[in-house]
Automatic annotation (TrEMBL):
Domain of life, source organism: Bacteria
Protein name per the record: Phage protein
InterPro entries: HNHc_6
Keyword annotations: Membrane, Transmembrane, Transmembrane helix
UniProt cross-references to Pfam families, sorted A to Z: HNHc_6
TM segment ranges: 59-78
Annotated organism of origin: Lactiplantibacillus argentoratensis
Length: 230
């Protein structure tokens, strides 16, 4: 991960993001993955430079407790392990969640994402950490769908369509990339249909708009359909 600063520039009623890199990028790598050194697409997000929050620290150690319960590995060992993974992911950047930390909210979110990725990948049960998980974030909803984990209880989930598929319509003939979905177990899937989306959202304090998944993710989780790009 390369550090950069971005400036918003206006020119003739058009807006441009100008990115200043701390070091020269690997142009050969850029050409390999994008096919060009001159023009390519990038994913970016706005960094939250505020100091890392106590809530993030509590979530981090709650998740480590869940991993300890599942694996028996000491939380101090797990902390060092994920701090090391963070350094590798950010090309050597240090992180701390102590009271006097200089790490930002965005830095802490990267660390938390690494832990949550690990737990989803290895099917580590969310218990203590589940109560603190930021369930309003699309990232968490995406991971629940990707790993078929219920966003409410963490049990094995089905894919619930927010955009209802009409009766008699074959789901294998639907382009699911155009529909909003959620990951819910059978129990909570039935409940949202019984009490309605608004009451369900109020009860569990979760969003019920759903998210859209790309074709690759949909095929990976076994949701067959007729996709426009096929």
């Amino acid at each position: 991960m390369q550090r950069s600063r971005t400036q918003l520039v206006e020119d003739n009623h058009r807006y441009y993001l100008v990115t200043m890199l701390d070091e020269k990028p690997n142009l050969d790598h850029i050409e390999t993955v994008s096919g060009s050194r001159d023009q390519f697409y990038m994913d970016w997000e706005l960094a939250d430079r505020r100091k890392a929050r106590p809530q993030q620290r509590r979530l981090f150690f709650a998740l480590l407790t869940d991993i300890y319960t599942w694996s028996g590995m000491a939380t101090d060992f797990l902390k060092d392990l994920f701090y090391m993974e963070y350094r590798e992911y950010t090309a050597g950047k240090q992180i701390s969640l102590s009271d006097g930390t200089k790490s930002s909210v965005s830095d802490a979110n990267i660390l938390l994402d690494l832990v949550i990725d690990f737990m989803f990948e290895w099917r580590v049960p969310f218990k203590e950490g589940y109560k603190l998980l930021p369930r309003e974030q699309e990232y968490y909803l995406f991971q629940c769908c990707r790993h078929r984990v219920c966003m409410i209880c963490g049990n094995r989930a089905d894919i619930h369509h927010v955009d209802v598929i009409g009766a008699g319509l074959n789901r294998t003939h639907v382009d699911h990339t155009k529909r909003h979905v959620m990951a819910l177990c059978r129990l909570h899937h039935s409940e949202i249909e019984q009490i309605g989306a608004n009451a369900f959202s109020a009860k569990y304090h979760v969003p019920v708009d759903g998210i859209k998944l790309d074709k690759k993710t949909l095929k990976r989780i076994g949701l067959k359909g007729k996709y426009s790009s096929d």
